[in-house]
Amino acid sequence: GKQFNMAMLSSVPVPSLAAAVPKTRVTPVASHRSHRSHRRASVRVQGQSKDALCRDMVGERREVESQGKVYKINFFATGGEVRQIECPDNMYILDAADQSGLDLPATCRGGICGACVARIAKGGTDQSDIADITFTLSEEELEQGMALLCMARPTSDCDIETQCDWGYSLDTGGWKGATGRFSASPDPLMGKKFSELTQAGKEEAS
């Protein structure tokens, strides 16, 4: 038979493994907690987007000095159900909701996973603490009033449409309006906790 030649092997083109690995994007999936209990937050990673899951992009939560203003925040669920809270001008809206006992979706609390997304139907927010908000929300979604409540501070009184049943996904055809009821306990779907993804990334890097 023919003698094996190492030079022949070196000439065979080998496809790049890196090129074959799909990029990832975080999409929120359902999760919940009962009142005053620890939320079992979860996210799903989809290998179908050009975006990359970058844990370094999780925003740094900042404390800012208050200007002494307190805003009224109205949260709307399905059927016109409304809950009103007060939120100081230097507090993130999601934190104020937590303190008031509202169980709203949240996972990373760093402005990247999108689980806390809501629509500001009236009023304004400051989301400047988020390093790259376009990683999660498109320009069109921002124009529609979408906001990440985990790192959004109010700049006025606000009316906010929420998905308190965890019914929203950034990849399912756009905002469907307020859904769920504040008193409901939605069934969680399968998913990975953000902490598990973070730990996996640390293990891969070590």
Question: What brief labels describe this structure?
Answer:
206 residues, Ubiquitin-like (UB roll), 5-stranded mixed sheet, two-stranded antiparallel ribbon, 5 helices, iron, 2 iron, 2 sulfur cluster binding, Fd_pln, plastid
What features would you describe in this structure?
- The structure is a single chain.
- The chain is an alpha+beta fold and 206 residues long.
- The chain has a single domain, classed as Beta-grasp domain (Ubiquitin-like (UB roll), Roll), CATH 3.10.20.
- The chain contains five helices and nine strands, in the order ααββββαββαβββα.
- The chain has helices spanning 6-10, 17-20, 93-99, 139-143, 194-205, and strands at 25-28, 43-46, 70-76, 82-88, 117-122, 125-126, 146-148, 153-154, 158-161.
- The protein has a five-stranded mixed sheet with strand order 4-3-9-5-7.
- Keywords: 2Fe-2S, Chloroplast, Electron transport, Iron, Iron-sulfur, Metal-binding, Plastid, Transport.
- Its main location: plastid.
- Its cofactor is [2Fe-2S] cluster.
Q: Please state the second-level CATH architecture.
A: Roll
The computed structural class is: alpha+beta
- Domain count: the total is 1
Per the CATH scheme, the topology name is Ubiquitin-like (UB roll)
Let me know the number of strands. Answer: 9
Taken as a percent bin, the fraction of beta residues is: 15-25%
Largest beta-sheet details = 5 strands, mixed
The backbone outline, from C-alpha atoms, is globular
N-C termini distance: 46 Å
Strand order of the largest sheet: 4-3-9-5-7
Number of helices: 5
Please tell me how large the radius of gyration is.
21 Å
CATH superfamily (homologous) name: Beta-grasp domain
- Elements, N to C (H/E): HHEEEEHEEHEEEH
CATH class: Alpha Beta
Mean pLDDT: 70
Enumerate the spans where pLDDT stays under 50 for 5 or more consecutive residues: 6-55, 185-194
The helical percent reads: 10-25%
